Amino acid sequence: MRSRSAAIVPVHVAVIMDGNGRWARSRGLPRALGHRAGVKALRRAVEACPDLGIRYLTAYTFSTENWQRPRSEVERLMVLFGRSIDEHRRDLMANNVRVRVIGRLQALPARVRLKFEELATATAINTGVTMTLAISYGGRAEIVDACRRAVAAGRPPGTDADFAAMLYAPDLPDPDLLIRTGGDQRISNYLLWQLAYTELYFTDTLWPDFGAKDLADAVADFARRRRRYGRVDG
Hints:
7 helices, Undecaprenyl pyrophosphate synthetase, 15% strand, alpha/beta, 6-stranded parallel β-sheet
């Protein structure tokens, strides 16, 4: 665990990007335009990370529950994912961003899954911010899948570290800070194992309006907290 002084900067920030639909509705726009604005907000957040000392950003992009949305909306989101990868690939490379993808990717349409896999491969050489996209992701699903891996490997985990090694991205550090936009105060089946000691930050700002200053405000709030990890406060 990090010392108190080293914990001033959240090295790993996880985000629940809530409010795209409400943002669009408040402007009389289709939900699809809210999602497009959300992609732009994610780009702003990634670009702001280096100046704030954030090395890892993990974004809840599409949950296992999101498959229950109207079929037309899901299809538009899949199209948006593909187009966004094509549009932002060059900038991601130029900004030295490494992209990783976690979740039940086999549920994605083959063409979309291939685009994500190609993007992850192309950016694997980058050494800047690591942006992890949680796609077709659920925290419970990840834990179930980890148990299945352990059974298949014939290695029942005896410690927390043994179990964590079975997760989708075991080499990623646990998030120091979780940011949820949109006003709701819950974690919505996101990174259930990893958030055990994560600091939580909630804001009413809708995700498409979230910018570099909002991220800096969340980091500043984090810096004022004391992380005790169950220890007695001195």
